[in-house]
Amino acid sequence: MFKKILIANRGEIACRVIRTARAMGIATVAVFSEADRFARHVELADEAVCIGPPPSKESYLSIDRIISACQDTGAEAVHPGYGFLSENAAFCTRLEAAGIVFIGPKAHAMQAMGDKIASKKLAIAAKVSTIPGYTDVIEDAESAVRISAGIGYPVMIKASAGGGGKGLRVAWNEQEAKEGFQSCRNEARNSFGDDRVFIEKFIEEPRHIEIQVLGDAHGNLVYLWERECSLQRRHQKVVEEAPSPFLDEATRRAMGEQAVALARAVQYQSAGTVEFVVGRDRSFYFLEMNTRLQVEHPVTEFITGLDLVEQMIRVAAGEKLAFAQSEVKLDGWAMECRINAEDPFRNFLPSIGRLVKYQPPSQEPKHVRVDTGVAEGGEISMYYDPMIAKLIVHGATREQAICRMKDALNAFVIRGVSTNIAFQSALMQNPRFVSGNFNTGLIGEEYPHGFDAADLPHDDPAMLIVTAAAIHRRYLERNATISGQMPGHEYVPGDDFVVLLNELQHPVTAKPVAGGCDVAYRGDVYSLRSDWEFGQSLFRGSINGSEFCMQVERLGLKYRLFHWGTRADVMVLSAHAAELLALMPKKAPPDLSRFLLSPMPGMLSEVSVIPGQVVKAGEKLAVIEAMKMENVLKAEQDCVVDKILAKPGESLAVDQAIIAFK
Fold first, then answer.
1. Helical segments of 31-81, H only
2. Global pTM?
């Protein structure tokens, strides 16, 4: 077994590998860019080596610098995690030439499966079901339009070297095929250094289901059941679960056997994933093989009891698999939510900044797990992907797993950057998802105009009103004890208040009692009991004996409450103050319609117009690169360009003006 390994990655996956290596008694070496000097994976590793500036091309993608770090520290092997160099055959070959073991498949398997065009041809030869399409390289947009028409719309345009939703577009007509082809090539060239694109039929109402495989150097191969990855937004996975609520035993076995057959065709060693698209009739077709550890691997670990990182290390060290296919268990149900630094209320735009508060849910119960690469005070950088953490839960049944995920999301406190926790909570309550009857189109169909707070109304507003009143009563009591009082003229807080929620006034009476507060609201008395202390982000307690957990944050005169995805800004006032507030004039927001504002922090890579140009609605105005994604900004209406206020290459802040219109 290895004595020391280097992790050629960053963030949560680097921390994940370090955790297993430490449990196996293996020393670890972290590498980091200058932007990650104080990152969590650097602190956790036994040694750490700086490998360059923040841009990935100059650090985490630099093969020479990573090999030098191995040689300088005496690392015998390298675990690549996922992303970056994890599926780079040249990296694997260079390591082997330097006498360093690559903890992953051999270069020939990566070369065969890493190219989507070549892998599809290989799958056909191995008698694996494949999607109809055009597998040769497409030279230009006109050819893409012609081929798409021949296959029949809708089609999927994909970069041959793509992955993670990058270099991928769905086209429903000629115009979308032409634009999608060019965007795919640009993203693929920037992300992977390979702009080859191919086209295949888009399966309507598809499900995305993948099979985890594991092989060793002795010819042993097994499949570790499936993962349901159909809940996606813009082809990026949002929620994953294992097993799939859609598959029956016969389909599960057939998909597993085909995945193993494909892996055997390339003499696959290590952990890998074969992805399939599955139709309504449970017909399934090969999509691609990811020759690396997947982001969502923890759900497989929960249901099988296996540590996939440990298995990868043991296989790389030459050991045989210690179990056969018949010994792979399937225990209960697991789910994973990706917690990303993005604002779901602003069309999921990236959010960067410092984690002012980071308090993940308790992992004391073994059915909750948080994989992360950050800590409170850490920074979410514009240079890397937006994932903050992975929240994984396990239950005996799917219903129990959903309930545990809802509770865990409810107790996940993050401040300083926007996150998608509210959106994840909404998905956990979506009837189609809860029923298991969904496909990859669920998010687009359920939220066609983006996500809005109105999409997640609280099912019991009285809970918010009562809790806000009780908290306010506690604050008034404390204020009365610390503000300084004259004997005989002490201030005694009253019990009658008006709670303002969603611009509506709710009269309440809040009387303190031992261990909490009794709140009268609309003829009912709510007995709230809690040991909450000032400054705590989580308000845990019970109302009329029913336990609940709610996030609480004080913002000036308001209380911001979070519960099961709902965010409510509440004010608690005296009756007279509420009357006066209703008379206050409301200030109209400034008119910014004459400006194109940057919707996110990022780098302005292109300005597509010039002063004086007449622009039609829908035309491209500018392109912003943020967190490894290309974001095209288009005109919302016909207009004339007045001034260009920012230059290509400039780093933009949120709401910074880029273009002024006449």
1. 40-44, 63-73
2. 0.84
